[in-house]
# Entry
Amino acid sequence: MEWKKIIIAIDDSPRSFNAVEYVGSLLGQREDVVLCLLHIYPEPPPDYYRSGASLDDYRKEQEQKARRLFDRAEAILSRHGVAAAVITSRCLMADHKSISAAILDMQVREHFGTIVVGKRGIPKAEEFLFGSISNALVHTGKDIAVWVIG
Amino acid sequence: MGKYTEISSLPDAIARNVKEHRVTRSLRRAPRVYTDTTDFTSIDYGDIIQVEDRYFLITAYTKEGRFGVDDQVKQWVPKVEDLASGVPYIVKLVFHETFDIHLGQFIIPCYRSPEKEARVLELVQGRPHFMQGEILLDTAGNLVRVITPVNGNRLDKVIQRSERAHEAYFFEELPDILARFLDAMQAISFLHAHGFRHGDIRRDHVFVDRYTGVFHWIDFDYDFYLPEKPFALDLLELGNILIYLTGKGDYNPRELLADPKLGDTVLQTIAPSDFSLIAQNRIVNLRKIFPYIPEKLNNILLHFSLGTEVFYETVEEIHHDLSDALHELSR
# Structure
C-alpha cells in the first residue's frame, strides 16, 4: 500500500482545516509524498430541480465552493513548506452513495494508502441520524491508514 | 379555478353511470370533468377526473391525523370510483411540499415527491407487503397515482384491539405479529437495495390484510435528505414500530405512573440510558417494565436507546437479530 499517497478529505468545517494544518506540520518539507485535497459533496436535495436549476448548475456551484476550500488549504500547506508540485485537488459528487463511500471509492480506485479527515465530535443521536464520516471511514476502510484529527 | 368540461363530453355509458350514481344524484350542482389535475383544490366531491381514458368519480376524501390535529382532509387524495368498472380506488394527485420534521432536538428536511412514489409503485408492482397502484398521466403531464386500497386495518388499531393484558399478548399474540413484521422489514430492505427510502414509516402506514394478515406498507411519497445516512430515518422508525409492538403501546413516565400495576416502583428503576435516542421521553428498555421480555429481544430495542454504543446500519441487521429473538420467543 502506498501510505505516502494521502487523501485529505475536506469540507468547510474548522476541523477540516485542523486536519490540513496537521498534515502540513507533519509532512512540511517532504517531497516523497502525494497529497490530494478531496472535497466530496452530496447529491442535490430532492426538490433542487423544481426551481428550474440543472445538475450542471449544482455541480458548478459546488465546484466554486470547493475551489475556495482548496485555495485556503493550499495556503496552509504552503505555509508549512509543502511543495505545490505534490498537491493536487479533486472535487466530486457522491453519486448514489454516501460521502464516506465516495471517499473510499476514490481511495481504492487511485490506490491511496492514507486518508486524513477532521472529526466533529457529535452526540450519539446526531451520529445515528446524520452519520459521522470519520467513523464510517474507520469502520469501512480496508488496508488503509485513516488519520482522524479532532 | 381549473378548466373543466360538462359531463356531456364523456362517452355515453360513462355519462349515464355518472347521472345514476348516488353521489351525483345528491349533488346540488352539475358534476365537472377535469383532465388537468394541476389545481386539485378546484376539484371537488362529485367531480370526475378523466385521465388516459379512465374516468374516476370522486366519492369522498381521505383524511389523516398528524401533528396533533385529527382528521385533516387530504384534498389531493380523493377516494374515487372507476366509472367503467365500479371498482373503488384512492387517487393521489400531484402535490409538492417541503417541510421540516422535528425529531427530538433535530430538524430534518422532508419532501413530498409524487415522482418518487410513482417510481416506488412501479418497482413494487405485484409484490406483497406493498400497496399497489398504477401511474397515469393527465393532460398536463401530472403523475396521477391510482391506488388499490388495502382491505384491512391500520396496524396500531389491530394491536390496540387485543383485549389481552400485556403478558398474555406478549406470549400468545406477539410471536405471530413479529413473524409478519419480519416479512414487512424485508420489504423495506428491498426498497433500500434499490436506492429508495420508504420515507414515512409509521405504525399507521402499515395495513394488516383482513383475510391474510399480511402487513402492507402504504404511502411512499415522502422523501428526506440525509446524504451520509440515507436510510437512518427508516431504520429509526422501524425500531419505533418494534418498540410499540413489543410494549403493546408506547411508554413514557407519565403512563407508567398512571398504571397502578407499574407506577413509581417501576419508574424509579428507569435510568436516562433507558429512554429513546431521539424521542427522549419514550422508554425503550421495556424489560424494566415487563421483566419477562427476553434479553435477546430487549437488546434489539436498546439499539434505539440513549445508552446504545452501536447502531443498526441496515435493515438486514435488525432483521437478523429479530429472527433470532423470535426463534427464542417461539420455543
About this structure: The mean pLDDT of chain B is 94. The two ends of chain B are 63 Å apart (CA to CA).
